[in-house]
Amino acid sequence: MNWRRGLKWLNFTLFIPFLVIVLLMYMLLFTQLGLNFTVWLAEKFVPELTVKTSSGHLLGQLQLQDVQWQQDEHNSIVLKQLDIDVQVSCLLSGKVCINQILVDGITVNINSAETTTDEPSTSQAIFLPLPVAITTLAITDANIKLNGHQLTWQQLSASIDAWGSKLQLDDVLWQQVNFTPAPEDTSAVTVAIKSQQNSPAEPFSYQTLQLDDINLPLAVYISQFTLTDFTLHTATPQYISQLQFAMQAQKQQINVTQLHVQHPQLTVDANIKLNMTNNYPVSGQIDILVLDKLLAQQKLMINIDGDLADLNINAIATNNIQAQLAANLALLTDNLPIRASFTANEANTFTLDDNTTLSVKATKLELNGDLQQLLLSAKTNYHLTGIPAGSIDLIGSVTPINAKIDKLLIRGLGGKTQISAIVDWQQELQWQSDIQFNQINLGILLQDYPGRINGLLSQQGKLASDGSWLVNMSKLDINGEIRELPFTLRGDLQAQANNNADADKISQVANTHTNTNTNTNTNNLVNLELLNNISFNTKKLSLIHGDNSINFNGGLAEHWQLNADINIPDLSKSVADANGNVSGKITVSGARLTPNIAAGLQAADLHYQQFSLDMLQLDSQIQLAEQVSANINLVAKQGRYQHNTLEQLTINVQGNEQKHKANIELQSNIAQADITFSGQLNSDTNWLGQLNQARLSSAQGEWKLQQATAIQYDLAQQQATIAQHCWAQQQTMLCLEQQAIVSAAQGQLALTLDDFALSTLNSLLPAAIETDGEIHAKATASWQPNIAPKVAVTVQGANGNAKLNDAEVINLPWQSFNLQLDSAEQLTADFAIDFTDKASIKAQAVISELMQAERKLAAQLNITAFSLDFLQPLLDSSSDVTAEVNSELQFSGLLAAPDLTGKLSVDNIKIMGKRAPTSIENGSISLAFLGETAAITGNLNTPDGKILLTGDANWQDITDWHATMKLAGDALSLQVPNVSLKVKPDLTVDITPQLTLITGVVEVPSANISIDDLPQSAVGISSDTILLDEQGLPTQETDAAPIPIHTDIKVILTKGVQLQAFGLVTKLSGELSVKQQDKGPQIYGEVALVDGTFRSYGQDLLIRRGKLKFNGPVDQPYLDIEAIRNPESTEDGVIAGIKVVGPADEPIVTIFSEPSKPQANALSYLIAGRDIGSDSGSTSDALTTSLIGMSIASSSKLVGNIGAAFGINDLSLDTAGAGTNSQVTVSGHLSRDLELKYGYGIFNAVGEFTLRYRIMRRLYLESVSGLDNTVDLLYKFEFD
Fold first, then answer.
1. In a domain, 668, yes or no
2. Considering only CA atoms, which of 892, 901, 866, 869 is closest in space to residue 882?
3. Is 442 exposed, middle or buried (0-12, 13-18, 19+ CB in 10 A)?
4. How far apart are CA 576 and CA 442, in angstroms?
């Protein structure tokens, strides 16, 4: 029983309590109830803590939502969601394993009024009793605020392992990080500034570093840390796209490897090792690559070695700048000893702007000393664009209280400049400098001002802590020679400011002027008073160049007395491209607030580049008193600028604020004006004036003001008010119908224009265009801030006409037109013009969303029965040109790229007549638009057949639009000067923004080409010829076609093509390829001369072989022609002729015979048909006839010009007949149908007069009077 009692006792005292404890621990750690209890307990013990929702269990998966710790309104922590997943099984192996800790939406606000500084303590090692492994730690959407500083990031994630005294971080990723520093405490800055102003500045002193050995309590290993998209928000935001590194930190050593920083302007790669013991030894390498445009791809390699007591830094720069730096710093020594040397032996070039570069080489800079006295020496050679090379030597020093330049020697510009200076800031900022230069060649900098100058400038100055300052140019002495004349600038100049402005005095001055109704000038006077603490003074300042001089003396202080004397008898001596003489005097005197300004200037014979002025005179008296008054007279006479001339300009202003008037008179070749106005300054309306009279004249007529007009101008609001008035030009009236209010912010206008003659505008149009008719117009406009302007315009006109006076006069009359514009929330436009009762053009457009960047368009264009008959004068009176244009087009969509739909057609096309290039009996061309595409179709009926035109276009991509058009059909007759032909085209035209390509085949079944003389256009203009415009100025060369044109056309010539030119009569046959790319047209192929004759040496020769070979330029064919005398008229069976071989510009002409004969005998056979030895008389006659024929041929152009001068067209000299019947003939046309000819015998003195009249196209009536008189009726016909 005892054991049972004992067992029972054990159950109640040990086992049952243990089971209860185990059960409670299980419920607490592994159930939702336990989690809820834990949260409730935490909220009870921490009243500031609240948890809205919890789920899961403590050991396992746990989730808390809307967790908040709120101490007060300035200190709080909020978690949107916290997820923890603990792996319980790891506890059995003595390890804490957490699969993930996820924190989403954390917001921290901490504002501590006081900051505490922890006392330094010795670091003790940290040892974890159990290993801890966190597979995933992630904190997203974080916003941390600490004492005004703000840190936010999108995501921070890592993997953590910790055991003993070691911590391992893997795959650390920090994304989209933003840091904003706390704003500066301006009140503290102000207090600091005041404190500095009231006490002398303390010299800077270096605080020597005190280093203790440090043992890290925890070894930290980071395998990879990555920071992306980091932004530092300051006045100038800084952005780092990526930062990466790996780190090992244990005991007294920190080792950072694979450090990489990516910045928009540079990249940094580094490896650094630091031991935190024994003066902290450090070593590392830093590589910098510059990405900024100015120094793109610049590389800098920095090596660090030593410890903080003896730190060595070596840097090497390569690429754009090549230099080396060696420095030594003793950071643990008082006053920080420094030794540094910078060298750059190679030339380094810097681009200052588009046209200027600076190159320096052999550069050396040395620093030695410490912060108590740092000695500086430097030297370099430099070269600046446009300036000869030079050198710079510098010796100086810097201490905590001053900086000193012992010598700064600059050699350059043909001389040298030496500078010495000292700047002291111990008590207040003070400086003193001397600049001396010798033999400086000014012409190097200013080519128009050659010469050498010497000089000495001595300056002293100071800047006090209260803002007062003093600058004293105690000696200014520059002398030398400029433009071969002596030059001097001598004198002294002092300027100072005392911080003692009297605010009460300023207020008193302002109130005084307000009470006298002159508040419009109060601001200016107060501004002068604010300058009361600034004064300028010079005993004498003289600028003298040759006989020209400008002298200043006096000062501007409490009492102003400053004089300037100008005496320039010859401006050309001192100013390049200028001529004339200028003289005058300017005096400023009186009290500071009420000075008097008197100026008298005279100038004569002024010239500067294209501007000239014979006389200029200015006389002015201005008094800035309580009542500002002025008397200003300006007269300018005989001015010229380019093609514009000024006869005289006179401006006169006189009076005071309460009553003043002005008159402006202008006489020039562009316009004449006579304007008089008066006014006064008023406290209520500011300026109140009246335009008393005005007359404006130009080539378009004279406009005259019909009545005096009141004008008000509010200076405060910058707003003008103009009363109702009218201007007249003959019967035309331009009126402001109601009072106008105009300013930049708001306004309203109402204008009418009656009986305006369009002929007034003819002087503004090209010389060949004239208009006639009258229009009437009305316009209103109003605008307000933040509201779209409202504009309404109506223009109406009755009968009118537009005339083109060219080779032929073309008239385009109309019966009426009307234009209406209205703009409010949208712009509406309506336009209509009626040419006849049936023909008209009407357009309507609406542009909406005017205040938006992308405006919308809805418009239509209707053309009804618009006849092209007005083009009839382009052809002769017997020709006929008719066509009718119709359209119904709609525009919609964005204004910048609207869609186009509808149809445009040209119907009833008819072109007939002798001067028409071709005959079209009937035809039509139609364009159909559908959004961003279009199609073209055409059908032209000619007497010879039909021509079909098809094509399409697409502009969906406005930068890559394209259009294609095809032309094909039956043979088409063409008439051009000297040529009548038929062509059968089959062409394709492809057009893109980059290229126009024309391809296809043109067949010429028949043609008749008759050329008696080359047109003037056949002789090009010499390359050294300069063409002038109407004003006598060189014309600009015409730019190439906006879209390059390429061609690839095959031209087929059949035997129906006949040519008559310069004695050559033949048929042409062959194929040519016409190609054009970057150069002009090129022709390739061969043309054969078939059944041809050639008149040479007074004979009609038969072409036995003839070829024209083209292999490039049009005007450079290769000739291969052989022409012989008719064998039937040649004795002895001999064949005689000529050979023409070679390029067209340099052919080789030879005479030959078969069988071969000497040249003299061959020439006799060619000319006379017989040998020299047979019948010398007739042979001599033939030779004589040939020589006369060749002489006449060389003078044909001169004879033609003489005939044209006497009204005889196509006057020409020639030979006719053969043997003893040979004649010299002169012929020409008195009209198109009447031809006369006179021939005189070479070997018999008999004249013959012929008169031929064309009755019909091929029927002629001819009368011949000579030894025999005849009257003949001739009919001309041709056959193949």
1. no
2. 869
3. buried
4. 14
**Cβ-contact 1093, 1100 below 8 angstroms:** yes
- Let me know if residue 480 belongs to a domain: yes
Whether 390 and 408 map to the same domain: the answer is no
Q: Where residue 1205 falls among pLDDT bands split at 50, 70, 90?
A: low
- What are phi and psi for residue 957, nearest 5 degrees? -100, 105
Considering only the C-alpha atoms of the chain, give the largest distance between any 2 of them, rounded to a whole number of Å. Answer: 187
User: Under DSSP, is residue 751 helix (H, G, I), strand (E, B) or coil?
Assistant: strand
How many domains, the chain?
4
- Is residue 1202's pLDDT more than 50? yes
- The predicted model gives 242-268 an average pLDDT of 93
| Token duo for residue 787 | 């509201």
User: For the stretch 687-717, what's the b/e string if a residue is b when 16 or more beta carbons lie within 10 angstroms of its beta carbon?
Assistant: bbbbbbebebbbebeebebeeebebbbeeee
Q: Within this chain, do residues 480 and 382 fall inside the same structural domain, yes or no?
A: no
CA distances to 150, 215, 229, 231 from 144, rounded to whole Å, are 6, 30, 17, 15
596 phi/psi in degrees, rounded to 5 = -110, 135
Regarding whether 328 and 476 lie in a shared domain, the answer is: no
Q: Residue 139 is encoded by which pair of tokens?
A: 């904190």
Residue type, 868: L
**Per the structure block, which two tokens stand in for 890?**
């709609």
Tell whether 1082 and 1132 lie within a shared domain. Answer: yes
980/974 Cα distance (integer angstroms): 6
| Pairing state between β 709-714 and 686-698 | antiparallel
Structure-block tokens of residue 149: 């500083």
Domain co-membership, 27 together with 144: yes
Gap between the terminal Cα atoms of the chain: 157
The confidence score (pLDDT) of residue 686 equals 82
Q: Look-up: residue for tokens 């909020």? A: 78
| Bridging pattern class, strands 996-1011 and 1045-1061 | parallel
Average of per-residue pLDDT across 366-388: 92
Together in a domain, 371 and 417: no
Residues 6+ apart with CB under 8 A from 1245: none
Which carries the bigger pLDDT value, residue 751 or residue 715?
Answer: 751
Interatomic CA distance for residues 1000 and 964, integer angstroms: 13
Q: Which two tokens stand for residue 883?
A: 């066509």
> Could you tell me which residues are beta bridge partners of residue 687?
681, 713
Query: Which residue is it, tokens 């149809």?
Result: 903
Query: Taking the model in full, what pTM does it have?
Result: 0.60
At residue 830, the 3 state secondary structure works out as strand
Give the end of a domain, one of 399, 428, 444.
399
CA dihedral 733, 739, 744, 745 (to 10 degrees): -140
Q: Answer yes or no: is 520 within a domain.
A: no
In the block, residue with structure tokens 């006090």: 464
Q: Are 1246 and 1240 in contact (CB under 8 A)?
A: yes
Q: What number is the average pLDDT over the span 96-116? A: 82
Cα radius of gyration rounded to whole Å, the chain: 51
Could you tell me if 982 and 947 are in contact, meaning their C-beta atoms sit under 8 angstroms apart? no
- pLDDT at res. 287: 95
Note down the domain range covering 435. Answer: 401-500+533-546
Is 473 found in the same domain as 414? Answer: yes
Which amino acid would we find at residue 701?
A: G
What are the Cα distances from residue 823, in Å, to 638, 849, 894?
Answer: 46, 11, 18
More confident residue, 121 or 248: 248
Instruction: Give the pLDDT band of residue 205 (cuts 50, 70, 90).
Output: confident
The answer to whether residues 88 and 143 belong to one domain is yes
**Residue 850's pLDDT is what?**
74
Whole-number Å distance between alpha carbons of 625 and 640: 39
Does residue 1216 lie in a domain region?
A: no
Distances (CA, A) of 902 to 72, 887, 925, 932, 934: 73, 8, 14, 11, 9
- List residues bridging with 732 in a β-sheet: 729
Cis peptide bond prior to 1147, omega within 30° of 0:
no
Banded pLDDT at 128 (limits 50, 70, 90): confident
Tokens for 917, please give them: 């290039």
CA atoms within 13 A on the CB side of 1124: 15
